[in-house]
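Could you join me in thinking about how sequence relates to backbone shape in a protein? Label the sequence line and the structure token line clearly, so we can match residues to local backbone shapes. Once you have written the record down, we can walk along the chain together.
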Amino acid sequence: MDRFRILLKKKPPKSDGKGSPPIGMPVTKDQIREKAIFENVKNILVDKGGCNPIKIALDARLDDLRIDSLDRIEILMALEDFYNVELPDDEADKIRTVGEIVQGLKKYVPYSS
């Protein structure tokens, strides 16, 4: 019985920070969608921004990835073209991390069937 209480007190595993759910946890359609958007953002950051793919995580700051303002505009435009959406300028100006790009795109990218 004590072992059962100890197991109940354990916290669930944390995500790896790269958009993947913890191992052993159920995966939702929204998590799959977020992971797909993250992978596309990552590919464009590597192609357009010359970023090291190992350093790209949801919590990575664009400044830390050496993405300047011109690179950011080019990257956001490439993502808008890829997804055929348009991020509002006021929202795009506030983006500082990779995760914020992913969350911003999730608002405007429709679910695929």
